[in-house]
Amino acid sequence: MARPRTPIGTFGDISYVKASGGQFRARTRFRDDDGKVRRVSATGTTKREAERNLKKIVADRSSYRSAGELTGDSTFTRLVDVWLADLDLEAKVAPSTRALYERNMRQLVMPVFEGYTLREINVSKVDQFIKRLASAKSYSMAKQARTVLSLAFGLAVRYDAIQKNPVRDTARLRKPPSQAMALTVGQVDAIRAAIRSWRRGPGFAGPPPDGQLEQIIEVMLGTSARIGEVLAIRKCDVDVTGAPATIRISGTIVSPAGKPTRRQPHPKTLKSTRTVSVPSFTAAVLRDRLVKIASEDPEHLIFFSRNGTPLTTNNIRRRLRAVLDEAGIVGVTPHSFRRTVATVIDRAGGADLAAELLGHTSSKITKEHYIQPDEAVDPVTAEILESLAPKRSEGGEL
């Protein structure tokens, strides 16, 4: 019968021999991380001291072996560090998503769980945390916290630190009822007017705005593109020689923490790359921008800062918010234009066409989050129901 192997990271019986100089040598066999058994020894003036020194050497080898690993006694903070390092190693998520994950973990989750070891965090603790967060803050925050918790504990399961992911058995989050709201034509015109007049005319010191904000909005309205995708459009992505003009949406602007803002060579998802035909008001903006960069390289961005660097999405959002606050227009974000485009396209061509324009793989997300529900029922129902009209007699009575 085969003798059972000593588990990795453990040592066998300790033996002692007299060493030179009157010292004692403690020896044992240690099964290392590669599965091989090695002899380890240490000396001391007494047997007890030699044993202590030996155990310290073994403990140091075990600590070195597990420096990148996790156990049930690892702290949650340790798990977070290993998880973030693993995200960087795999590099499968966009830098903006990586930054969002870390922010949500450190701001929403860490304050609650940083004092626990992994074996102390059970389904009940996670479930109560998520429910309290949804109640005290919002469904969205609770959902984001649940996502990063599940990802981190999934790594702990793969590292054999825990047997089950405690997030998996928590109660399902119930999304509160909501619906997408699109802007009306009147609201869009009011926004245009507010931007055109912002900080222009007598009474305003300094140079007037460069006009890019209103042009960016016209491109958003003509393409349904996200704000980052619009800011990432290059000279080579635009073709105004045909009718209608087209834009290839093939990148987005990202601002990684601690790094310069740059153009990412694909949109939010790789499948979002698309070529969009644009209406005449967007084509007019494109022609104006192309004139301004006529001598520039084909890779040059259509929209850019005074220094020629990429515009950041946060700066555009702040500028739009400042303009609309002065005009008394509330509740409008860059995403409002995307929902407006989706709703207009849906009314004329259906949800599938809207999804195609927005770069979605199916119309389900488009319907749920971007298209404002249409309360109007097809008026053909009135004609059909005429068949139920009361019959009149020859004298005209019912």
From TrEMBL:
Residues 178-383 form the Tyr recombinase domain. InterPro entries: CB, DNA_brk_join_enz, Integrase-like_cat_sf, Integrase_catalytic, Integrase_recombinase_N, Integrase_SAM-like_N, Tyrosine_recombinase_XerCD. The keyword DNA-binding applies. One of its GO terms (molecular function) is DNA binding. Residues 74-157 form the Core-binding (CB) domain. Keywords: DNA integration, DNA recombination, DNA-binding. Residues 254-274 are annotated as: Disordered. Residues 260-271 have a biased composition (Basic residues). GO terms for biological process: DNA integration; DNA recombination. Belongs to the 'phage' integrase family. This is Tyrosine recombinase XerC.
